[in-house]
Amino acid sequence: MSVAASAIFLVGRILFVALFVVSAQGHIANHDRYVTTARGKIPVPYVAGWPVGAWLVLAILSTVLGIWPDVGVLMVAAFLIPTTILFHPFWRFFRRNPATDTAEQLLPQRQPSRCHPRPFRVLDRCRTRAVRYHGIPVQPALSRA
Fold first, then answer.
1. How far apart are CA 136 and CA 108, in angstroms?
2. Element (H, E) at 124
3. pLDDT tens digit string along 98-119?
4. pTM value?
5. What is the total count of domains within the chain?
């Protein structure tokens, strides 16, 4: 492998593990918070604190230093998969009933130029009525006019 390719590969590994440095630090520094959050979700909530932080530090060092980087990446995956399933179940947030949803409810409403849509909230302020987006009802806001 050329020097340029090695340098690019090293930069990619550093950028990849940079995502997990803050997470590892949080797990080590805020052990009690993570244990409290994990209580009731995993059988041994104590491991959600500094043991997971130490696991991530080992994975980060393995990946960045190139000492068995494939094992380091597998360690990150072994952290991410259970974490996603147990603590970040995104698939529970968008439950819709296809029988009652209409195109108006699922598609964002076109806004006139003087109305500014906000993220996560589609509100037709010009007609002061709320519409539904992704099956989530939105409460009408007070007019600022």
1. 12
2. strand 123-124
3. 666 555 555 555 555 455 555 4
4. 0.60
5. 2
